[in-house]
UniProtKB/TrEMBL annotation:
Annotated protein name in UniProt: Deoxyuridine 5'-triphosphate nucleotidohydrolase
Pathway note: Pyrimidine metabolism; dUMP biosynthesis; dUMP from dCTP (dUTP route): step 2/2
Keyword list, A-Z: Hydrolase, Magnesium, Metal-binding, Nucleotide metabolism
Biological process according to GO: dUMP biosynthetic process; dUTP catabolic process
Necessary cofactors: Mg(2+)
Lineage: Bacteria, Bacillati, Bacillota, Clostridia, Lachnospirales
Organism: Natranaerovirga pectinivora
Stretches assigned to the dUTPase-like domain: 19-149
Amino acid sequence: MGKRIKVRIQQLEEAKDLILPKYMSEQAAGMDLYANVVNDEIIEKGKIKLISTGIKIALPDGYEAQIRPRSGLALKHGISLVNTPGTIDADYRGEIKVIMINFGDEDFIIKRGERIAQMVINKIEQIEWEVTTELEETGRGSGGFGHTGV
């Protein structure tokens, strides 16, 4: 694994009993996020719901956090995230919340402390545009949207 960076995290008062985001295996890329719900939350089939995690983070400059669905919830229950991956910028200091959607055939119940999403921390670079009148040619050119076959 690469080097570890320190990231400051704050648990909201009502979430102090919850587990902090954590890696579930030695080489996992994502940390599981836990639901900070007081009572069971129901996501009706076909509906969207915003779920609290009870945490805030302070990423170092040059990093972002991506919030992604959990594959087990997607496969077994049809649960995903609406804006996947969601991006947490280094200068955001609000609570991390997860926009969940139920694509399944039945309502889905979220319980307090349940693993609802995963968070991946990435190093990022910002760019500076260099305006030009043409771009260099490549073998692919402008081919896209299935140009290599289905």
